[in-house]
Amino acid sequence: MSSPITDYRNASTTSRSAAAPSKPPLVRGEDFTGFVEPVKNLIVKNPGAALASAFLVGVIVAWWIKRR
């Protein structure tokens, strides 16, 4: 016994894939690696400064939300 929902999904995915070629994604995982690695190295070298910065950002965001 076939399910109408499954049949609809299969029909819609095959018609979409046949109609238009797939486009590459705008952002790939490799793009973030260039940004994450230097930040990760900075955090490993200066964990105290990273913790203090995260705390300060949290306090500022909380203050900003409370003002609204």
What does this entry look like structurally?
The protein has a domain at about 30-68. It is about 80% helix and about 0% strand. It has 3 helices and no strands. It has helices at about 5-20, 30-45, 45-65. The termini are far apart. The model has no long low-confidence stretch (mean pLDDT about 80).
Which residue ranges are poorly predicted, with pLDDT under 50 across at least 5 consecutive positions? none
Total helical elements: 3
What is Rg? 23 Å
Question: What separation lies between the terminal Cα atoms?
Answer: 55 Å
User: What is the subunit arrangement here?
Assistant: single chain
- Tell me the major beta sheet: none
Order of helices and strands: HHH
The helix content is: over 70%
Taken as a percent bin, the fraction of beta residues is under 5%
Average predicted confidence as pLDDT: 82
Summing up helix and strand content along with how strands pair, one would put the structural category as: mainly alpha
Any idea what the shape is? elongated
Number of strands: 0
Annotate the secondary structure layout:
Blueprint: H1 4-19, H2 29-45, H3 47-67
Summarize the structure.
This protein is an all-alpha fold and 68 residues long.
Name its key features:
79% helix; mainly alpha; single chain; 0% strand; 68 residues
